[in-house]
Amino acid sequence: MLGAGLNLGSARRIVLEELSVETAPSTPQSGEAIALLQHSSGTTGLKKGVALSADAIVLQIESYAATIGAGPHDTIVSWLPLYHDMGLIACCMMPAYLAIPIVHIDPFAWIARPELLLDALVRHGGTLTWMPNFAFDHMAMVAARRAGDYDLSKVRAFISCSEPCKAASFDRFAAAFAASGIRHDQLQCCYAMAETVFAVSQTQIGAPGLRLRADSLSLARGNIPRRVADNEPGRDLLSTGLPLADIAVAIYDENRRVVANPTIGEIGIRGAFLFSGYNKDPARTAERLAEGTYFTRDLGFILDGQIYVLGRIDDLVIVNGRNLYAHEVEAVVGRIDGVKPGRSVAVAHFDARIGSESLVVISERQRSSVRPEAELRRDIMRLVYSTFEVTPWRVHIVEEGWLIKTTSGKISRSENLARLHGKQREQGASHDG
After folding, report:
1. CA neighbor of 198 nearest in space, from 121, 97, 337
2. What is the β-pairing status of strands 356-365 and 339-351?
3. What's the whole-model pTM score?
4. 179 plus 324 within the same structural domain
5. Inter-residue contact 45 to 314 (CB < 8 Å)
6. What separation in angstroms does the CA of 390 have from each of 214, 278, 323, 349?
7. Contact assessment for residue 43 and residue 410, using Cβ atoms and an 8 Å cutoff
8. Dihedral sign, Cα of residue 284, residue 290, residue 292, residue 296
9. Could you say which of 32, 136, 257, 397 is the most buried, measured as most Cβ atoms within 10 Å of its Cβ?
10. From CA 391, how far away is CA 137, in angstroms rounded?
11. Strand 306-312 vs strand 265-271: parallel, antiparallel, or unpaired?
12. Strand pairing of 76-78 and 102-104?
């Protein structure tokens, strides 16, 4: 909830689903006072209240707006919920502060009819929109059948944020909407989090993003990524751009010592718009915010000033010494016929017998699929092994809608693993009975 600490100055006009709303100016308070608590919603762990000052919010908005050239000439179109940083800051508070019109679509309506975003972009002359990575795939799969009905060439940027940005998702989106005039220079990346109000880095609007194809085996902490040719096995990485003004980013080892670029390590952030701490959680605050540096628990590296984000430390699965990023496994599994795209989760299971982690995959079966469960399971095992040279310990096929998502739309790995364990205990009890 927004407090009175953020003074938006004169009244601003906001368009929300074609309803004009006049927002009254707030009463200024100390810029260091907490203006709001923003929920940090990841794929693991409990949700955390991130305390943000009015000064931090204003500095972030002004810095990010300058980076992307946002102003009254723009129109922002969004379906994002307004209770997390991407929807709240980029698609509500920033445009309100800068007097930029907003067209907002109900998130549940968008999920059912993703073409609503395209309709709104064309109808209202939209120039900017933000989406998590899964949305690019969702739209390419569902909304592309009407690609010829839209002229999207005037949209300045479709910005991927919140989840790791995937080159394959951009390629599918660009191919699906080629008839709409989509170009690769419109597909942009942003690295952001609630703890910095919103954006940490952003690619250059109007220019194609940078890509790096790296040997997957080299993408472990402490290594330097090894570039490989396009025809060699590897992982395509997208840069999330240069850090914003007033932000400094460095890479740290396990002992929180800065490493030389481009060594892989934990991303640490210093800057003018860091959060004040986690609400009523001093222990977590002290753990993550040390001497002015926020330790993100994201793994990545910096090359030529550009930030590359590999994934969460919490979502890293280490099997027989091999480092697997859960979101990469999930993306591969989502390509299998009969598996619902974007509805798989890869988690680690500690096997006491071998003293190591094992890989567990849970995938939703498409409701329309008639493929036998055993066949789906076999295909998942084969594809994961052929891609990562690791065989899943277990593959579980569940029905559509079974997997739990966080309030920001991310698949919750910890909650789904807990649900799976609960289901197995229930089945065991029924067998005993």
Report:
1. 97
2. antiparallel
3. 0.82
4. no
5. yes
6. 19, 37, 10, 14
7. yes
8. negative
9. 136
10. 26
11. unpaired
12. parallel
In a domain, 6, yes or no: no
Find the CATH number of the domain harbouring 397. 3.30.300.30
Backbone torsions φ then ψ of 290, nearest 5 degrees: -125, 120
DSSP state of 166: B
- Give the amino acid at 197: V
Output the tens digit of pLDDT for each of the chain's 433 residues: 333 334 443 333 344 343 333 444 444 455 678 888 887 755 444 567 899 999 999 999 999 999 999 999 999 999 999 888 899 999 999 999 999 999 999 999 998 999 999 999 999 999 999 999 989 988 998 899 999 999 999 999 999 998 889 999 999 999 999 999 999 999 999 999 999 999 999 999 999 999 999 998 899 999 999 999 999 989 999 999 999 999 999 999 999 999 999 999 999 999 999 998 999 899 999 999 999 999 999 999 999 999 999 998 988 888 877 788 888 899 899 989 999 988 999 988 876 665 668 899 999 999 999 999 999 999 999 999 988 888 999 999 999 989 987 665 667 777 888 888 776 655 555 545 4
Q: Quote the domain boundaries for residue 412.
A: 320-432
Identify the residue whose tokens are 């800068």: 98
Question: Does 284 share its domain with 148?
Answer: yes
Instruction: State residue 267 phi and psi, 5-degree precision.
Output: -80, 125
3-state helix, strand, coil in the chain (%, to 5): 30, 30, 40
First and final CA of the chain: distance in angstroms?
49
> Is there a contact between 298 and 311 (Cβ–Cβ < 8 Å)?
yes
Q: Which two tokens stand for residue 375?
A: 């066949």
Quick one: 371 and 417 in the same domain?
A: yes
